[in-house]
TrEMBL record:
It is found in: Secreted. This is VWCE protein. Signal peptide: none annotated. Keywords: Glycoprotein, Secreted, Signal. The gene is Vwce_0.
């Protein structure tokens, strides 16, 4: 009614804190609150982001920031210049939360010397050589000369001799065959026999001999080496006869008694008792 005064705005009491009428503040969880007529009204914070690649809100903040850029999940500082992950020689820059990229302009046609670092794709020049056309990188040999290798490099032909391996044989054993580019080693001549340095005797291949011990036999191998092997005696008897120059004792030739040799069925007196008569029996 006219002449009646309006009651003063009432403050708000929220979470133990008194808020002035019309006051505005931010609660945890990015809630924007205001005090109106003694009541607290809250709503989600509305963020206005004026850039294309904002960074996430800092700790304790609610809205993303345009001081820096977030590009392909990577945070970039203000003014940072970088290349995207797909490469292709594109250059990007971060300015006020916006990412601007620039790709090179490639002229049409071929390029003289391609390399992995080049940004523009190109078709290397072909080579025209002695009436033939070769693609870039092609390898070929000269007509009738297989020992020379040529390669086409961006319109230019470079030729070089075929590299040969190092040989470990002396010069007189090296041989260059017809149609070959590199020499090879001849096989050393086969040995004619075995030469023994200790006594100066040479044995032909396949020769068997005893080097002085009748129980050891040696043979001359085809490669000029000597192989020796000892003989194992397996026949035993109580009174064997040892024949000079023979490895194993002979048990069938007779008997040995007190240093004397008696033939089979031969009788003789005992050396211990003259009344005893002994006989050699080969069994």
């Amino acid at each position: 009614a006219p002449g009646t005064s309006m009651p003063p705005p009432r403050p708000c009491w929220h979470r133990g804190i008194s808020r002035e009428p019309g006051g505005r503040w931010t609660e945890p969880g990015c809630q924007s609150c205001t005090c109106q007529g003694g009541r607290v009204l809250c709503d989600a914070v509305s963020c206005s982001v004026p850039c294309s690649h904002p960074l996430p809100a800092p700790a304790g903040g609610c809205c993303p920031t345009c001081t820096g850029c977030l590009h392909e999940g990577v945070a970039r500082a203000e003014g940072d210049v970088f290349s995207p992950s797909d490469g292709n020689c594109t250059i990007c820059v971060c300015l006020a939360g916006n990412v601007s990229c620039l790709s090179p302009e490639c002229p049409p046609g071929s390029c003289p010397s391609p390399s992995p670092a080049d940004c523009c794709s190109c078709n290397p020049e072909k080579c025209n050589f002695r009436g033939h056309t070769y693609a870039h990188g092609a390898r070929f040999s000269l007509d009738g000369d297989d020992c020379t290798t040529c390669v086409c490099q961006a319109g230019e032909v470079e030729c070089s001799f075929t590299p040969c391996p190092m040989l470990d044989c002396p010069q007189h054993q090296r041989h260059l065959g017809p149609g070959q580019c590199c020499s090879t080693c001849r096989d050393p001549p086969a040995p004619a026999g075995c030469f023994l340095d200790d006594n100066g005797v040479e044995f032909p291949v396949g020769q068997i001999w005893s080097p002085g011990d009748p129980c050891e036999l040696c043979i001359c191998q085809a490669d000029g080496s000597v192989s020796c092997q000892r003989t194992d005696c397996v026949e035993t008897c109580p009174y064997p006869i040892r024949i000079p120059g023979q490895c194993c004792p002979d048990c069938s030739a007779g008997c040995t008694y007190m240093g004397r040799i008696f033939s089979n069925n031969e009788t003789f007196p005992s050396a211990l008792d003259p009344c005893l008569s002994c006989i050699c029996l080969v069994r």
